[in-house]
Amino acid sequence: MIDTILFGIFPYVAVALAVAVGGYRYCVDRYSWSSHSSQFLESRGLFWGSVPWHYAILMILLAHLLAVLFPGGWGVLLGRPVRLYFLEVSGMALGLCTVIAVMLLMARRLFDERLAAVTSRIDWVVLWLLLLQVATGVYIAFTLRWGGVWYAHTATPWLRSLVVFQPEVQYLAALPTVVKVHAANAFLLVALLPFSRLVHLLSVPLGYLTRPYQVVVWYRQQHQKGLS
Amino acid sequence: MNIRAQISSVFHLDKCIGCHTCSIACKNLWTDRQGAEYMWWNNVETKPGTGYPTKWEDQNQYQGGWEKAGDELTLKSGGRGSLLGKLFHNPKLPTMDDYYEPFTFKYGDLTSAPAGNDQPTARPVSMVSGKPMAIEAGPNWDDDLSGSKSYAANDPGVVRLSAGEQAQMFAIEKMVMFHLPRICNHCLNAGCVAGCPSGAIYKRGEDGIVLINQDKCRGWRMCVSACPYKKTYYGWNTGKSEKCLLCYPRQEAGEAPACFHSCVGRIRYLGVLLYDADRIKETALHEDSELAAAQRAIILDPSDPQVQAEARKSGLPEQLLAAAQRSPVYKFVKEWGIALPLHPEFRTLPMLFYVPPLLPVLSQANQGTQKLAEEFFTTLAQARLPLQYLAGLFAGGNLEEVKAVYRRLIAVRLQRRQTSVGDLAEAEVAKARDLAGVSAAQVEAIYRMTALTRIRERIVVPPLLREQAVEAGMDPEEYKRGMGFGARRPPKRRW
């Protein structure tokens, strides 16, 4: 029963919340949509926390995503022991990286007086959940070896079943508790996304790569009508 | 040609008394709220000095502005890809310590302290954390050369000078300084606009005012490092960057911007300039020493019928063309050639010009008693404030630019002395004018504009024609929010 709720129903609730509240916030309170960078108040600690955190978590998320999108290709990729070893080791290293980085980020918010002024309750909730997420991830990587392989036969079919609205929770029900926590917490983070500063990951400014440097905006009508 | 209008300004540094009234007017109007206490959209610095934020002119440290790479301009802080790679930590972002930590005092302690043997004190507390703090800096910490051993001596412009020139500046009893008020330059080739990953910063097409769309800003804070003048500021509790908006709401109502209006020394002139937007890049690509002249060249004569015809083709309204012809800025910059841009070598084409100060330059040799034109001009070479320093500030190191300005300012001074005191020979005055390349009528006009004009002549706000703006054509029932009737929320963090 609990498995059905956590892995069959909650993911939909989380995504629905993310879309609905995210859309509401974007339309009604776009002013609040920001990364809320704290680098201005504390720069050195952020460097050692934020840079490894972001790059490592992006790679890890990419691996999780690729294994869901292209399970066939993923299988081929891991088909050779060398590649499997490489992926396993780099995954563990990146995972450790994220754990250390997120702890650094928490420490700086804990010990810097200026940062305390810009740290809200939701920031702490998000930080603790992120720590839980990466810590369980690393624990899984070290105790339940070859996650790259079994992920493709458990999480991938489960996530795919969610996408087609025929949730098959049995894929997860059989897994150890720590994996279940990891999976449920992932969707909890999705649910919290629109309520926190995590929204910044929806506004990755890739448009910058192609836009002209100078931006000119006209407010007069004749320009709107193309008279100039 | 693609003619656009730019609201620009001239600050006459000889008239600035360093009273900071402009800063206070701006502060009271725009930045008197949490997260913005440390921001001074308008600030007044003492030169020589390190300024606010400390050493903002040192682009080796902050990497603001543009770099010339062959025939291309690139941001000094890096290309587009490298800039996105620095989103997670911007290595060149000044932190609060480079500005100052805003503080207040526990005034309540003065009245609520229990009776005792000691005088009660009001301890300073941080306006960020609320905790007691030691005040280590302020927005004008090196005002009037205070702490000049550590501030003025480290001015990036001073460090560049020769040992002899430095000695000249810091000679005991001859130390010299002037005030440099700074606001956003509303550049033609703005670094902040180019650096913004979200595309939130834009230049208004009609008047050239550079603004940050607060709904689009995502707090990536690249504008702060990309602006070489450090005139965009990160709001630490809203997660949004903010900057000087040239009081556009006041200007739309026909009023002067607050800092202009409140200026005690009446040093500030405002008017509209016409320029050719197609030539921005080519102008910014000139050599350092040619940039000041190139920037003058991009500005067009509003009285020229050909320019007017082109401007109409580009969609500029008649009222604006009329205002451009009355623009005092055009006169200072183009007609009289006595106003120069600040640090043109940053290549952002700043649209705020300065009349360099004459007073601190004169009279090392004769204690200010020269009378004759010859003497004035020979003094230039051994001026109290090395001209090289001023050339580094206002002309990308080009001495000739600065000298030309000073010759004109001296000609004005001599002619006025002849008129009002009458102890100079007309021939001397004529010689000074010839050397400076100005006519007697121009000298009178410069004198008039500098000394006698009232606010409507000094500050010619062009009609901003909000009645023609896009919103005016909207159905008010349908677009209440867009019309400015929507609920406004306070600028603070809510999620």
Tell me what you see in this structure.
- The complex is a heterodimer of chains A (about 230) and B (about 500).
- With about 230 residues, chain A is mostly helical.
- In chain A, about 70% of the residues lie in helices and about 0% in strands.
- Chain A has ten helices and one strand, in the order αααααααααβα.
- Chain A starts with a helix and ends with a helix.
- Chain B is an alpha+beta fold.
- Chain B has a domain of about 325 residues: Alpha-Beta Plaits (2-Layer Sandwich), CATH 3.30.70.
- Chain B is built from 22 helices and 15 strands.
- Chain B has a five-stranded mixed beta sheet, sandwiched between helices. In chain B, strands 2-7 form a two-stranded antiparallel sheet.
- The radius of gyration of chain B is 24 Å and the shape is globular.
- The chains are: A mainly alpha (about 230), B alpha+beta (about 500).
- Chains A and B meet through α2, α5, β1 and α10 of A and α3 and β8 of B.
Explain the layout of strands and helices.
The complex is a heterodimer of chains A (228) and B (495).
Chain A: H1 2-28, H2 44-69, H3 71-77, H4 81-111, H5 113-117, H6 121-143, H7 147-163, H8 170-173, H9 177-192, E1 216-217, H10 221-224
Chain B: E1 3-12, H1 21-30, E2 43-47, H2 59-62, E3 66-69, E4 72-75, H3 80-85, E5 103-105, H4 108-112, E6 124-126, H5 156-159, H6 163-170, E7 178-182, H7 191-195, E8 201-204, E9 210-212, H8 222-226, E10 232-235, E11 240-243, H9 248-252, H10 258-262, E12 268-276, H11 280-284, H12 291-298, E13 299-300, H13 305-313, H14 318-325, H15 328-335, E14 340-341, E15 352-355, H16 373-381, H17 387-394, H18 399-420, H19 426-436, H20 440-451, H21 455-458, H22 481-485
Helix pairs in contact in B: 16-18, 17-18, 18-19, 18-20
